[in-house]
Amino acid sequence: MSVAVIGAGAFGTALAVVLAAKGPVTLWGRDVAWRARENPRLPGIALPDSLHLTDRLADCTAETVLLALPAQVLGSFLAAEAQHFDGRRLVSCAKGIDLATLTGPSALIAQACPRATIAVLTGPSFAADIARGLPTALTLACTDPDAAEALQRQLSTTALRLYRTTDVTGAELGGALKNVVAIAAGAAIGAGYGDSARASVVTRGFAEMTRLAAALGARPETLAGLSGLGDLVLTCTSEQSRNFRYGLALGAGREFAAGTTVEGAATARAVAALAPKLGVELPVSQLVAGLAEGRVAMEHALDILLNRPLKEE
User: Fold this and answer.
1) Tens digits of per-residue pLDDT, 13-52?
2) Which of the chain's ends, N or C, has fewer CB atoms near its CB within 10 Å?
């Protein structure tokens, strides 16, 4: 069965490359006229002949569609193009919380495509690793067990291993919130606070992720798995992570590359808006939101976080 990938960024292209080894894949992007069949966002990765590039959504007729668009773009894309996708198996690959609705990607898909079967693909991964065939394990979340098993078989490869869960909320929140913590962790390193401070920020951030997820009905064990703790460890310790690099730049007082997608900055703002509605204390997310919006100066930010009242852990 063929697959379509919507979104020709690094991650969407990487998924398309590895899945094209199993069968035909169509990759849609607004500008896919790449020379020598190489995506400039994935340098050194040749695109196989079984991967069809297109800028026409009408060409994306596969039953299984991977939506590899940024979280803040997905809602407007679906509002305009949902008629192309309703009734199919739609797999969200976005990691974030929509600022306009304060909901995750699966809720956006469900609203736009009510007849679709919805799943979420998330977990610790970098596009370059996937594209090069390096071992990667991800979470596939879907409330329909039969659809989940079919998608698991279809989207797993020798090196890309998918593990099922029915906890869509937990998987989705893990992928979104780890980006927020990664910004704070990067800021700690960029400001020269050191690895011990980063460990404190990551630990408190993980507790925060778990609190918010529980408040929204997720299972705690999901946050302890690949989509939560696994992705958190990866994103907070590698400069391959855009969110971590953004935090580094904030901490060091440097400009960050213009036009680079930093999902954690928008997600932090969404989470900060959710916190009072849910009655959940989220100091890391609120701090990152303040930094991203320019309301909090970097020289005071980590002092505020690290000098909170002494109490039991």
Assistant:
1) 999 999 999 999 999 998 877 766 888 889 999 999 999 9
2) C
Q: Which residues are the active-site residues?
A: 178
238 φ/ψ angles, rounded to the nearest 5 degrees: -135, 135
Rounded (10°) angle between helices 263-278 and 195-215: 50
Cα 119 from chain centre: 14
Q: What is the pTM of this model?
A: 0.94
**CATH tag for 176-306 (out of 1.10.533.10, 3.40.50.720, 1.10.510.10, 1.10.1040.10):** 1.10.1040.10
Q: How far is CA 230 from CA 1, 23, 33, in A?
A: 30, 29, 35
For 241-265, write each residue's pLDDT tens digit.
999 999 999 999 899 887 788 999 9
DSSP tag of 6: E
Q: CB-hemisphere CA count at 13 Å for 288?
A: 35
CA distance 193 to 61: 51
Banded model confidence at residue 310, pLDDT cuts 50, 70, 90: very low
